[in-house]
Amino acid sequence: MNEDYDISKESGRVQKVEPSLIRTVLNRVDELRKSGHEIVALSAGEPDFNTPSDIKEATINAIRQNYTHYCSNRGYEKLRKKIAEKTWGETGVLYDYKSEILVTSSGAEAINNTILSVIEEGDEAIIFSPAFVNYENMVKISGGVPVIIHLKRENRFGIDIREVEEHITERTKMLVINNPNNPTGAVYDRFILERLCELSVRHNFIIVSDEMYSRLVYDDAGFQSIASFPGMKERSVIINGFSKTYAMTGWRLGYITAGEKRINAILKIHQYSTTCSPTFIQIGVAEGMDTELTKKEISAMMDTFEERRRQLMKGLDKISGLSYVIPKGAFYIMADVSETGLSGMEFAKRLLEEKHVAVIPGVGLGRMCSDYIRISFAASTEHINKALERMNSFIRELLKAD
Ligand SMILES: Cc1ncc(COP(=O)(O)O)c(C=O)c1O
């Protein structure tokens, strides 16, 4: 027996990661609300819409019919067929529902299991920063080394291929992209994606493409899946899900599309983590995801996001001391607050405590983003207007105090 062993000690794997700053902000919002404050939250990455009615009804029916038992580890067959059809329609890539699609309990699980299935001790994964926090942390948990490339505002948070090449080594096993991007709103064009595909072939690494926001694109931006480039279906793993595009964050349903061998590897981890995603949810989604009513509801939601994006940009344009890169996808704006004299962290903290508006400090998404805050436009028109008014008065008071 090892008497020195501290039974409450975290494993080395856990010690490598920090709690997410986004959660810290959301917890503070909860505290303030509980103590009676009216908080305008432009912090969360979730649509404020209701889940499509047909999905809700079909799920309730599935429970009533006692579909409350385990189902196939890969996911309910009809749902996999529907995902294959949807992916074909949206990207032109044909995945076999029998072997090339895995249903997961959220996009987050899809990311975690994918990274765990690829990365070994000492392997390198190229990650662009700022980024959704899970990529870097899961690479660390897997024993790998996140190789961070900092995206630059001067380049509209775009990817510089030469810089990518400079970061590739013998140990590069994976490159992660998020297209459309949280938090920058970038949508990568054909030219950049082609170059990344060439690098994947030349240096023999896999591309993990998180396409959670694939249907949320604006203006002239055209979304293209990395898997749609020649030979890339086998060299990529695509992460997707229902949280953002079907307003289903609390349902925890995601999926992965990839070549058969990779899916089988990820399946082993999925099997030992969640076994399968809840059966009645999978049935409800399979039955309700493509009805005429659902299509109408989703399309109205997309139109509303587009209106809110314009509303938020118009409002921000009128506030001196803030600047931003126009987002072409997803539902966030990264705003530079450096002209106010505050860091993004101080700005976000004071805005929350003094004006009761919640946004995310940029450093929570990327070390080099200390001048930024992330503002989400997945909030009602009323809340966006209120937040803009309060932000405006906060900055006016700040600049006057100078
Ligand atoms: C880029 C990106 N990927 C994945 C996820 C995870 O989505 P979920 O776990 O809700 O399916 C999120 C959520 O914020 C995200 O922004």
- What name goes with the CATH superfamily of the largest domain? Type I PLP-dependent aspartate aminotransferase-like (Major domain)
- Calculate the terminal CA-CA distance, rounded to whole Å: 63 Å
- For the largest sheet, list the strands in their spatial order: 2-8-7-6-5-3-4
Mean pLDDT: 95
The Cα radius of gyration reads: 21 Å
Which term fits the overall shape? Answer: globular
Tell me the helix content: 40-55%
**Total number of helical segments?**
13
Number of domains: 2
Content of β-strand:
5-15%
The helix/strand order is: HHEHHEHEHEHEHEEEHHHEEHEEEH
**Stretches where pLDDT falls below 50 for ≥5 residues?**
none
Could you please say which CATH topology of the largest domain applies here? Aspartate Aminotransferase, domain 2
**What top-tier CATH class of the largest domain fits best?**
Alpha Beta
Outline the biggest β-sheet. Answer: 7 strands, mixed
Overall strand count:
13
Q: Enumerate the distinct ligands.
A: pyridoxal-5'-phosphate
Helix vs. strand class = alpha/beta
